What we know:
single chain, alpha+beta, 3-stranded mixed beta sheet, 8 helices, about 40% helix
Amino acid sequence: MGGGLRDLRTGRLSEPVFEADFLDCSLGVRPKKATQDALQVLIDGAWRKRRWVVETDIASCFETSSHDRLMTVIEERVCDRHTLRLLRALLRTGVMDNGIVRHRGTGTPQGGAISPLLANVYLKQLDREWRRRGNGLLCRYADDLVVMCESEREAKTAPNDLRTIRAEIGLAPKDSRTRIVHLGGGEVSISWASTTDRCAHAGCMLAT
């Protein structure tokens, strides 16, 4: 079991299984994906007149994701009982809080390479629901979200729609990080953008 758990912690055992099922809107902490890919989505969206942008993220995403719900999503792709037992054991390892290990029914392993992968697996639920019933182009970089809309009116409805979907999967928005901006030729700071790109023809600048 020790070797299997080590493989799970590094993501080597599980990553290819889940990669095949991720949607194109998921761009953070994935093989061959980078902030430049997410920036390109913004550039392309602006070209297509989606210049009203909703930026938000998820409050304590890595600490509040339900283990039971996460395992349900995992079981869509994994049927091997041994692997599922290892994953459950990994989730039950607990978290360190003021020097005390606490076991909870939520959250992904702290500091492990597999934690971002499990977060992406969990947030796949949001990606699918947005594709089914959301308005606007979703771009998700781990737990940071951007929705590109064609009008201000559409952009103003997106935060409530996202809040509804997140509540359905047991997550909450970070309201202090939720805002609506217009890509209209000024400077726009996107939290996960690590580079500066100029969209001269699209009429916007993305910078950090």
